[in-house]
């Protein structure tokens, strides 16, 4: 990662035509902290995995939204796609479930963190968990994720009034990324993250993945063994493999080591 006039520049890799940042844990934390502590500007971070990559392949609007955001790799499928396209894995598997709590630990400066998403009880339990995890930050549950779209501007007024530094949004893909793109703007936080089922995990609704499994990048096998009923969802992985193979054989590729970059604070 390079610092240019106070902005951070991160290199990217082409995954199914979408630029995805190839940061390791330390650089990703430094990137996000720099954004969150800037006096102005805003950057939106999204996470790409096999499931929402499939959505992107059939939803041009969703792809366009992701192209306007800073995208991090989430999951073994995207990691394997990087092997196919670029001959190497991503430096880190930056799942939102692992990344966000670790980032909040990394940022020593007290932050005001607004939360939107999940059901009300889940949202409140997730906020309580984060308060115990990093008590030097202020966690502000703004709204659950089950609101009418015509309430969006009023909800963002509450975020603005809360003077949030960081905004966490968990409403499922592609709804959360599209909603952020339409309704979140400067003055609503310097760092915005669209998340997977983070609030459910923090609330204890779903068990966290063991760290050893995450480190070995065997999450797909762990989930399959823990929840055999998820077997039909393997169809999504098969669909993703099809997209990867088709793109490898016929899709345009960004040159390896090209100058494609994502700049913090510029979105």
Report on the architecture of this protein.
Helix 6 (120-133) links the parallel strand 6 (112-117) and strand 7. The chain is globular and about 50 Å long. It has one domain (11-203). Strands 5-4-9-8-6-7 form a 6-stranded parallel β-sheet, sandwiched between helices. Strands 1, 2, 3 and 10 form a 4-stranded antiparallel β-sheet that branches. It is of the alpha/beta class. The chain contains 12 helices and 10 strands. The longest helix has 17 residues, at 234-250. Mean pLDDT is 85; it is low at 1-6 and 255-259. The chain has helices at 25-36, 50-58, 60-67, 76-86, 96-106, 120-133, 152-161, 175-183, 198-202, 211-216, 219-226, 234-250, and strands at residues 2-4, 7-15, 18-21, 43-48, 70-73, 112-117, 138-143, 166-170, 191-194, 261-263.
Mind sketching the topology for me?
Layout: E1 2-4, E2 7-15, E3 18-21, H1 25-36, E4 43-48, H2 50-58, H3 60-67, E5 70-73, H4 76-86, H5 96-106, E6 112-117, H6 120-133, E7 138-143, H7 152-161, E8 166-170, H8 175-183, E9 191-194, H9 198-202, H10 211-216, H11 219-226, H12 234-250, E10 261-263
Parallel strand pairs: 4-5, 4-9, 6-7, 6-8, 8-9
Antiparallel strand pairs: 1-2, 2-3, 2-10
Helix pairs in contact: 1-5, 2-3, 2-12, 4-12
Number of domains: 1
Helix content: 40-55%
* Terminus-to-terminus distance: 18 Å
Shape by Cα distribution: globular
Structural class assignment: alpha/beta
Estimate the mean pLDDT confidence: 85
Element order: H for helix, E for strand: EEEHEHHEHHEHEHEHEHHHHE
Largest sheet composition: 6 strands, parallel
SS summary, helix count: 12
The largest beta-sheet arranges its strands as 5-4-9-8-6-7
């Amino acid at each position: 990662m390079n610092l240019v006039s106070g902005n951070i520049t991160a290199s990217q890799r082409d995954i199914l035509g979408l630029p995805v940042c190839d940061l390791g844990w330390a650089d990703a934390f430094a990137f996000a902290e720099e954004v969150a502590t800037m006096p102005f500007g805003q950057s939106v971070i999204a996470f790409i995995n096999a499931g929402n990559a499939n959505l992107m392949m059939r939803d041009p609007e969703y792809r366009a939204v992701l192209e306007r955001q800073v995208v991090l790799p989430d999951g073994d499928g995207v990691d394997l796609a990087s092997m196919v396209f670029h001959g190497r894995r991503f430096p880190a598997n930056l799942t939102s479930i692992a990344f966000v709590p670790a980032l909040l630990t990394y940022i020593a400066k007290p932050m005001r963190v607004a939360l939107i998403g999940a059901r009300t009880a889940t949202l409140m339990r997730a906020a309580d968990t984060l308060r115990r995890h990093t008590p030097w930050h202020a966690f502000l549950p703004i709204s659950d994720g089950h609101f009418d779209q015509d309430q969006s501007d009023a909800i963002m007024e509450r975020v603005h009034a809360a003077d949030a530094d960081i905004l966490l949004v968990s409403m499922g893909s592609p709804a959360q990324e599209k909603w952020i793109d339409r309704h979140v703007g400067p003055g609503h936080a310097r760092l915005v993250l669209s998340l997977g089922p983070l609030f459910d995990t923090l609330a204890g609704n779903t068990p966290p993945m063991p760290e050893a499994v995450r480190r070995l990048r065997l999450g797909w096998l762990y989930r399959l063994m823990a929840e055999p009923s998820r077997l039909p969802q393997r169809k999504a992985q098969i669909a993703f493999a099809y997209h990867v193979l088709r793109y490898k054989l016929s899709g345009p590729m960004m040159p390896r080591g090209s100058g494609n970059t994502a700049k913090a604070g510029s979105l």
